[in-house]
Amino acid sequence: MPASNTPPILNLARLLRVQGETEVEGEFERLTYLRAGETAELVLATPGRYDVQVHTVGDDDFWLSGTLEATLTQDCARCLRPVEIPLELSLGVLMRYDPKVEAPYLDETPEGEELLMFGDPQLDLSAFFSESLLMGLPLIVLHDERCKGLCEVCGIDLNDDSGQTCPYLPGPCPRLERPQTREQEDGAARKNPFAGLASLDLPDE
């Protein structure tokens, strides 16, 4: 199925009348969700894909399961380079229909189980997919574990393959000439626990 800008929609009208199950699969090029009351868009490097099944577990309760695949683009936490992060997620969530609900949102049951509330039989899964993908991201995104980050003086990418040159060259770089802070000195001392002995006035043998 070709990717589409159409949001992933799950039609539950039949299951709200007659108990049973349904399945839907498809691809998507974009996902939107609410962040701090404003519409935000999840940045995808390639079209995502989903395959979900829903079956009735109560009068207005349903169980959704399936898979969700997408590659997100995030910024490296140190140098801000774009990083592609492929994700393959297994989905499983209890859903509850309440016609008073204006937009789908995640809640919890009294037992602490995740609960997806919805009020439209044409359920837009965009927000649920977005939250699932965001929760699947690593806590810290790095393009390389050895990333050197950005220069705190001029802002250039300090990695060897960046192709960026310090604007202060051929003169001295202020970053390299800057006096060490107390934190940096403490860090150096931790790396060399014997460094403090150099300042002691020890008797000659």
Structure characterization notes:
Residues 177-189 have a biased composition (Basic and acidic residues). Residues 177-205 are annotated as: Disordered. The chain has 205 residues and is mostly beta strands. Helices cover 14% and strands 38% of the residues. It has helices at residues 13-17, 126-135, 174-177, 182-191; strands at residues 9-11, 21-28, 31-35, 38-42, 44-56, 61-75, 82-97, 105-108, 114-118, 122-124. Strand 3 and strand 4 (38-42) form a beta hairpin. The N and C termini lie far apart (84 Å).
In short:
By secondary structure, the protein is mostly beta strands.
Q: How many helices does DSSP assign?
A: 4
Average residue pLDDT: 84
As a whole number of angstroms, the C-alpha radius of gyration is 26 Å
Order of helices and strands: EHEEEEEEEEEHHH
Cα(first) to Cα(last) distance is: 84 Å
**Sheet having the most strands:** 6 strands, mixed
How many DSSP-defined strands? 10
Secondary structure class reads: mainly beta
Poorly predicted regions: none
Approximately how much beta-strand content do the residues carry?
A: 35-45%
Can you tell me the overall shape? elongated
Task: List its traits.
elongated; two-stranded antiparallel ribbon; 2 domains; 6-stranded mixed sheet; 4 helices; 14% helix; 205 residues
